[in-house]
Amino acid sequence: MADQQRIHPVDVEAPSPSAPLVPRHQLGSDKGDPAEQQHPPVASSIPPPHRRTIPVSHSSPPKRRGRGGCCRCLCWTACLLLLLVVLLAATAGVLYLVFRPRLPKYSVDRLQVSAFAVDAALNVDASFDVTVTATNPNKKVGIYYSDGSRLSVWYDDTRLCAGSFPGFYQGHRNTTVLVVVLTGRTQVGGDLLAALQEQQQTGRVPLVFRGEVPVRVKLGALKLWKVRFLVTCNLVVNSLSVDNKIQIKTSSCKFRLRL
């Protein structure tokens, strides 16, 4: 028996497709490549190249310096004013310790009526000779009395007569007695005149002596700026008749300083 040949099935590997000899773009039809239509494009797993990020600088708006400049100016002004106040206070303190200033004293010691007449139209003509005593108690302070002073005598808010203080210099620890002539003409009402006559009968006539005198104070060799002395004296006299001897029953004076 002849040997039969055994045939064994052999798997023949399918030949791997080789690249076409003709370029793909020449074989493709107008509809495109069938392979590209059937298989969608595969996303590439290669990451894109790293791009350097450039920072963007935003320009800030310019700052306003007007308000800051005003604040600095106000601060400097306040500091200068404070320094000036401190210097003035220190100077005043030193002057006070060195000179020990004291207020002058004034008094009305005598009142003589030279004329006091009332006419039919209720006009009063008055002339008074007022004796005023000014005392300077300071050891190192002198007083210059300047021209332009105003003195007057009043009765119930009505000025009867007026005059002025003479200009002179009053030295240290000095007492000066001055006789000032005051004259005037004023119209009064019937009620005021009746009240004055009634008070003369009782022997108590209230009067007010007022004085405003410009002066300059001298501290050693230093002469200060001009100020004003204000003097108010409340008087009570027995009469305003020319024939009678005028007596001052009460007298009190107040002194003020006006810069």
TrEMBL record:
Alphabetically ordered keywords of this record = Membrane, Transmembrane, Transmembrane helix
Task: Extract the ranges annotated as region (Disordered).
Answer: 1-68
Q: Principal place where this protein is found?
A: membrane
Q: Where is the signal peptide?
A: none
**Record's keyword annotation contains DNA-binding:** no
Biological process GO terms, please? defense response to other organism
Q: Which domain of life does this protein belong to? A: Eukaryota
User: Mind telling me which InterPro entries this protein's record contains?
Assistant: LEA_2, NDR1-like
Q: Where in the cell is it found?
A: Membrane
Keyword match Transmembrane = yes
Q: Specify the protein name.
A: Putative syntaxin-24
Species in which this protein is naturally found? Anthurium amnicola
